[in-house]
Amino acid sequence: MLRVEYREGLYLPDLDLWLDAEGQRELCVISHAHSDHIAEHRAIIATPATARIFRHRRGEAEVITQHYGERRDYGRYALTFYPAGHCLGSAQVLVEADGERLVYTGDIKLRPNVAAEDAVIVPCDTLVMESTFGEAQYRFPPDVVTNERLYAAVDRARSDERVPVVLAYALGKGQEALELLLRRDYRVTLHGSVWNVAEIYRELGVEFSGPYERYDREHLRGRVLIAPPGCRRQPMVQNIERRYTIMLTGWALNKRAPFMYRGVDLVLPLSDHADYDDLVRLARESGAQRIITMHGPAKFAAALCELGFNAEHLAPHPSTIDKTKKRAPKKAATAIEQTLFD
Ligand SMILES: [Zn+2]
Predict the structure, then answer these.
(1) Range(s) within the chain of domains with CATH label 3.40.50
(2) How far apart are the first and last CA of the chain?
(3) CA distance linking residue 65 with residue 88, whole number of Å
(4) Which of 145, 198, 278, 301 has minimal Cβ neighbours within 10 Å of its Cβ?
(5) For position 323, what pLDDT does the model report?
(6) Which residues in the chain come in under a pLDDT of 50?
(7) Which residues surround ligand 1, an ion (CB under 5 A)?
(8) Does domain 143-268 have CATH number 3.40.50?
(9) Contact, 26 vs 13, CB < 8 A?
């Protein structure tokens, strides 16, 4: 079986293959272009959409693009991408080598995403899965319920003559929120970083349900503003005297959410990640005999074992532990706040 290591990125030493490495590499497979999954590599392998967004965020690199479902041979291994439903172009990576099928999910959302391709579950022998919400408290309500709460909050804010400010990170959630709001005919204005990515989505063929504008402080009346979460403490949002802030995040279900998002008026559980039940479903339907969890609580692997799966949590490789420890507080804050992906 292929050895799997976490060395500030996923590493398959038998194949000398890097996936989502956090530091510069000669060649790296990129599952999606969130900032915690990309670095200034010399060459990358990615879907065309991820490669385009990577260029926007990290500049030039030698790029090998592969469409979903297109299998390509790289000598010691073959790679195929499948949709991950997390943001436009996000991919699960099937690695085939030595007769083994290994799938790395990257960040994944199994529920339909109104602004990304629908995820599929890929049969495999080894499943390396993200498990951000791998605790039973994270069972998201049906999206239709959350969406209605969003619309009701926006309506309430407007009737109270407050500007609704929806906090969603620049790649993925921002465009999802945009599409949800446009489907109800709201006038929407976007922070520059959300706008930039929305324009790339359009260039890549996404048809939003209506027009939208780039933020202009003279023209906020009657609009809903979408801005990255970090903006809530910045003048752009702070200077809106009558505002109503709505944060969209799976962490809404954490009982500490009111403290984590102090000052936010409403926190709604709309996530671009799979919830607990979907993570278990992913493990089951993949048919994998070996499951390796990462980017989440170690106890998720224990919970899977109790359900009869052969699962283990991928601990950082010993050579990287010191560095990981030093950076732990920052990483924890990043995961909780979900603010830095612009
Ligand atoms: Zn992500």
Answers:
(1) 143-268
(2) 37
(3) 15
(4) 145
(5) 57
(6) 328-342
(7) 34, 107
(8) yes
(9) no
